[in-house]
TrEMBL record, chains A, B:
Keywords: DNA-binding, Transcription, Transcription regulation
Superkingdom in the source lineage: Bacteria
SUPFAM superfamilies: Homeodomain-like (SSF46689)
A Pfam family this chain is assigned to: TetR_C_20
Protein's recorded name: TetR/AcrR family transcriptional regulator
Domain spans labelled HTH tetR-type: 19-79
DNA-binding region: 42-61
Length: 216, 216
DNA sequence: GGCGAAACTAGAACACAATTTCATATCTCA
DNA sequence: TGAGATATGAAATTGTGTTCTAGTTTCGCC
């Protein structure tokens, strides 16, 4: 019964009951966030809702931010899973890259628009300095990038990495700006769309393939 | 002596002494942030350091975030002012766009690298939902965009707006990722550089000038 | 040169949640 | 079945932004 000085229980080592408890925690958080946002509930509420004691919750997650980040990760995976599923169903090369990517970014933006509390949460986690939250954010990014890499599979290496980063950046930036009430949701759609079209326009991709100005 | 229910004193209406007091507050905050970051001091410390009573500070700024945001804005303006000054000295068209912009972004990144506490602060303010902090952030963005607009003056409208947004986004995204310990400072330089070169490459700019695939 | 209102000061008091603690109950499995 | 690890529930702790109080200063104005 050491005090809670150590890292949270790692998922690998958990018994079935513990995994279930962990699951109940994250599910409760996802629900609470969906209902009214991450600021509107306390850890106590999470405990009540999940049926896991408050002290116990802290054996599973190092902080509220950590828990929130994992919940965010969960929610986001649901979204990308759907995108991937649709993508697999349709088959790959039917549509040009620009449209494929736009389809994805628009879905993501619509998702955040419909569930604005998750947009707020995303921004919060995006900039959390809690190391465990940060780790969960890495996971989210990886997942996101994986989807993009799939959509960009037939784009040459060099422009692909740049374009992917640019699109992801613009998306996050626009989202942040929207969440903090510095632009409208229409602006978000517009900026992302324009960027995707600009950065992935066929003639530009072709031009970039061999380009290699030294980077310094 | 009404309670502090109302908006903070507006700068326009202040007497000389009040402006001085406000100045002492922001200066104290800039110093404190420079020394050890925004999380390491309390409002009480700001009061002590500035010689302004705590309660009075709250007549000038609605919240700690508000005060921090204004301090950030101040610090950032110093940086951009220097850039603009150098730019004016050299005259405009001497260097190609890509190099002009890279010069600017690299300076900015180096500034944040040298004063990492301000990078942390920027990220904090960037996502603050406090309306007054948000307002100050708008100011920062405007200032930044103004610099970029100057550097991009000879780029045609349509690609200019897109490129500017892309560069700003990638810069903020990379900075955020660095601050939250999800990439190295070298990555930041690299990503921004690659983006600038890609997005502002002369042949691409030319190609984009007339392009207008419908957006809806 | 004194009045009154508004602004300032010092510092105590408050609010509010995250986090920790602990005594007790409950599992788990040899 | 019993020892040790885990979980529970509720209360205690903590840190800090923000507000409040009571006394003091400032300043325009008659």
């Amino acid at each position: 019964m050491l005090p809670n000085t150590s890292a949270p229980l790692s998922v690998e080592v958990m018994t079935g009951g513990q995994l279930a408890r962990r699951e109940r925690l994250t599910r409760a958080v996802v629900d609470l966030v969906a209902e009214s946002g991450a600021d509107s509930f306390q850890m106590k509420d999470v405990a009540d809702r999940s049926g896991v004691a408050l002290g116990t919750a802290y054996r599973y997650f190092a902080s509220k931010d950590h828990l929130l980040a994992v919940a965010m990760s969960e929610w986001q995976r649901r979204l990308t899973d759907r995108v991937i599923a649709d993508f697999d169903r349709r088959g790959v090369p039917a549509v040009p890259v620009v449209e494929r990517v736009l389809d994805y970014t628009n879905r993501e933006i619509r998702g955040f628009q419909r569930h604005a509390h998750f947009a707020g949460l995303m921004v919060r986690i995006y900039t959390s300095t809690d190391p465990f939250a940060s780790e969960a954010m890495r996971e989210i990014s990886r997942n996101n990038s994986a989807v993009m890499e799939r959509l960009l599979a037939d784009v040459p290496d060099r422009p692909r990495a740049i374009a992917r980063n640019a699109v992801e950046s613009v998306l996050m930036h626009a989202l942040t700006t929207w969440v903090t009430d510095r632009c409208t949701i229409a602006d978000v759609f517009e900026r992302v769309t324009a960027t995707v079209q600009y950065v992935l326009a066929p003639e530009r991709l072709a031009a970039a393939t061999g380009a290699g100005t030294t980077t310094g």
